[in-house]
Amino acid sequence: MKRFYFVLIVILSMSTFLFGCSQKEKDMKNNLDIGIDQAQRIEVTSVKDPNSVLAVIDKKEDLNTFIKKLRVNKWNTAEIPSNANKKDIYKLYQKETIKLGDKSNKGEQKLQKVGTITTYKNSSYVSFQTKGLNFNLKVPQDVAEYLSNQSHLK
Questions:
Q1: SS3 of 31, please?
Q2: What angle do CA 19, 78, 148 make, to 5 degrees?
Q3: Which residue stretches of the chain are H helix?
Q4: pLDDT, tens digit, 9 for 90 and up, residues 32-45
């Protein structure tokens, strides 16, 4: 009888564990959260001249509009075509994390680059790089058009 209960508990535990893992994997595929909403400044540069800033987005309402227009939840991982040519780079910045006991920059936090989005000419593909991770993504056509128009703003 003890053996029966032990086997039953093991089977229930395994099924609960496996169900939880599959649900977590499903949620990860459906929710591509790449942290763009944490950006506090975005600089748009050309691939041809990455040191020349074409546009800056740093006002809170402009950042919110930019993030909403990206519709990141509609992005999907994909392979970028081999004939795709890079166009613009969006450099994402946010304030440095305050470290416990660090009094050197009290009240003054510098912005640090946390990621980049690279767009491609006449394409609805982007590359996203952050913290050593690289993602190739397919974005909706309206998002691709919005991103291509941002480099023309000053």
A1: coil
A2: 130
A3: 2-30, 60-70, 141-150
A4: 555 677 788 889 99
Q: Which two tokens stand for residue 12?
A: 């229930």
- Sign of the alpha-carbon torsion through 76, 68, 118, 94: negative
CA pair distance 92, 128, nearest whole angstrom: 10
Whether residue 26 contacts residue 41, with contact meaning beta carbons closer than 8 Å, is answered with no
**Residue 19 in tokens:** 């169900």
Inter-residue contact 50 to 89 (CB < 8 Å):
yes
pTM recorded for the entire structure: 0.70
Tokens standing for residue 141: 């056509």
| Contact predicate 95/111, CB 8 Å | yes
CB-CB contact of 95 with 110 (8 Å): yes
31 within 8 A of 112, measured Cβ to Cβ: no
Per-residue pLDDT reduced to its tens digit, 70-86: 888 888 989 999 999 99
**Of the candidates 76, 66, 75, the residue with the CA atom closest to the CA atom of residue 37:** 66
